Amino acid sequence: MAVRRVLVTGGNRGIGLAIVQELLKRYEDTYVLLGSRSLSAAEQAIAAMPAEHRARCTPLQLDVASEASIRDAAALVKEKFAPLHGLVNNAGVMPSDFDLKSGLDINVRGTVLMCKYFEPMLLERIVNMSSGSAPNFVQKCAPEKQAMLVRPESWAQVESAIQEMENIYALDHSKVPAAFEKAGFGSFAGISVYGFSKACVSAFTYTYAKEVPRLITNACSPGFIETDMTQHFVSPGQSAKEAGLKTPAEGAEVPIMLLMEPIKTTGKYYGSDGKRSPWDKYRSPGAPEYTGE
Ligand SMILES: NC(=O)c1ccc[n+]([C@@H]2O[C@H](COP(=O)([O-])OP(=O)(O)OC[C@H]3O[C@@H](n4cnc5c(N)ncnc54)[C@H](OP(=O)(O)O)[C@@H]3O)[C@@H](O)[C@H]2O)c1
């Protein structure tokens, strides 16, 4: 049986770990590289798996915020495991609204650099973990900012929006909210940095799929999933389910579909129900599928 090797970043916990576990459980022909910035966290996650899964899973030290770490991991994978069926850019953070650097370094540049270094080894698929926060963010932007983030002509166009955002964040913190809103990035509240970073991930997916048409590259939202990232959305005394959160295994469904199932669409954004969603408007799970570009 031909083996399909897959790399999942941030595979040591949360949705990433669920993707690893479900891949090993559902597809006997998979071999999974469990990317984790902490090798011991990866080893612990693998040690807790059934023996049959452990035999098809290996830890890979990988800090997506570090180009050197990505380069080293790519060299090791090229030597020992290439080619890979696919890559899941799952690693991510939800930073505070004043921590643009983490949002960009991990969520955006991490995804971009992973694609750059691993593309030569990939046979078929890339799945980029975006979020419903992306269309929610874009929806609130002024038309000229929407034009930079939705169906951009090139990644350079998105990078100019990133540069503009970095200029805003170079100001004194007290001046950031007003400058953010004046620049047309919408209201500065809640999860603005996270929403912006995920809008950039979606926009990157759109441009990258055009640049590298031999691969099937899509972005998705996993849904609202119970992980460390979403703990603060659960009120005291409330269960995760009561707060509307689904399980990590449920969050793994769409990324796995985009990674493993026979799809042909590339450069699209999928909602947590496995149907396409628009880039600039939130579509609730179960609502009619988006059919535009
Ligand atoms: N949970 C949700 O409802 C939800 C909704 C929409 C989108 N998402 C997206 O889904 C993905 C997974 O989120 P989650 O909910 O599973 O979050 P999580 O439980 O907080 O897990 C985040 C994962 O990313 C890893 N990570 C963070 N920074 C990293 C870095 N620099 N290098 C490598 N790995 C790094 C973490 O590793 P460490 O253990 O080393 O920190 C961890 O494995 C993220 O991209 C998130 O934005 C989640």
CATH homologous superfamily (4th level) name of the domain at 4-131 and 200-270: NAD(P)-binding Rossmann-like Domain
Assign the CATH architecture of the domain at 4-131 and 200-270: 3-Layer(aba) Sandwich
Instruction: Assign the structural class, choosing from mainly alpha, mainly beta, alpha/beta, alpha+beta, or little secondary structure.
Output: alpha/beta
Distance between the termini: 37 Å
- Low-confidence blocks of residues: none
Globally, the shape reads globular
Ligand roster: NADP nicotinamide-adenine-dinucleotide phosphate
Helix count, per DSSP? 11
**Count of beta strands:** 7
The CATH topology of the domain at 4-131 and 200-270, please?
A: Rossmann fold
Beta strand %: 5-15%
The spatial strand order of the largest sheet comes to: 3-2-1-4-5-6-7
How much helicity do the residues have?
Answer: 40-55%
Q: Which CATH C-level class of the domain at 4-131 and 200-270 is it?
A: Alpha Beta
Element order: H for helix, E for strand: EHEHHEHEHEHHHHHEHE
